[in-house]
Specification:
The N and C termini lie far apart (about 40 Å). The protein has helices at about 20-25, 45-50, 65-75, 95-105, 125-140, 160-165, 170-185, 200, 210-224, and strands at about 5-10, 35-40, 55-60, 80-85, 110-115, 155, 190. Helix 2 links the parallel strand 2 (about 35-40) and strand 3 (about 55-60). Helix content is about 40%, strand content about 15%. It has one domain (about 5-224): Spore Coat Polysaccharide Biosynthesis Protein SpsA, Chain A.
């Protein structure tokens, strides 16, 4: 039986690219798409709604983690077998989803896309530094070794998205998932994915920064 795959896109002020992101996913054959507009102040909700996909809306900006939880809960209600999270800023390649799904079909509970397993990708130096810090933090707090603890493209099988217990709303959600993988003894694997950094994605004011990374560490340390 073919598995029902839902793609969940957390989106905050993405009116410039959200339409093209949705179109690119549909072009790859993904029809079950859920955009969670996380209290955007622009036309993200309006543009997404015009595409005919499922669009949910937070009245206030709650954070990436909260938006993903909302989307996953909706996918659960709609009887999803697999949930794929996919950032709304256009940095991911929809063609990579098939690689994640292959691993889910092979029996993995969680598949983590990694930007750092593909060589010769142009990743800004600050992104590399932030990722190293986040990876070390993940290892220190939870004893998990990964190459990309902050990746936004991930796939979850039913066992995983039923069981994940997340309470953080913002960027610490990505790290919290890794804690849950260990706590629940979920079968997880990293796979290489492409990444496309543009002037648009790099200039977004709500992106992860060194300061927000420190706060992420503090919150996760207190929750560990």
């Amino acid at each position: 039986m073919k598995k029902r795959v839902f793609v969940v896109i957390p989106a905050y002020n993405e009116e410039t690219v959200i339409g093209s992101v949705i179109h690119a996913l549909e072009k790859q054959g993904y029809k079950n798409i859920i955009v969670v507009d996380d209290g955007s102040l622009d036309a993200t909700y309006t543009i997404s709604s015009k595409t005919g996909i499922i669009v949910l809306h937070h009245l206030l900006n709650r954070g990436k983690g909260a938006a993903i939880r909302t989307g996953v809960e909706a996918a659960h209600i709609l009887d999803a077998d697999v949930v794929v999270t996919f950032d709304g800023d256009g940095q991911h390649d929809p063609a990579d989803i098939s690689i994640l799904l292959q691993k889910i079909n092979a029996g993995y509970d969680v598949v983590l896309g990694s930007r750092f397993l593909k060589k010769q990708q142009k990743i800004p130096i600050l992104k590399r530094v932030y990722n190293i810090i986040a990876n070390v933090t993940t290892y220190v707090l939870f004893g998990i070794t990964v190459t990309d603890s902050q990746s936004g493209i991930r796939a979850y099988g039913k066992k995983a998205f039923f069981a994940l217990d997340s309470c953080h709303d913002r960027y610490e959600f990505d790290t919290e998932v890794l804690r849950e993988i260990r706590r629940l003894h979920l079968k997880a694997i990293e796979v290489p994915v492409h990444v496309r950094y543009t002037a648009y994605s790099q200039n977004k004011y709500d992106k992860q920064t060194f300061t927000s990374g420190i706060w992420t560490f503090i919150r996760m340390f207190l929750a560990a």
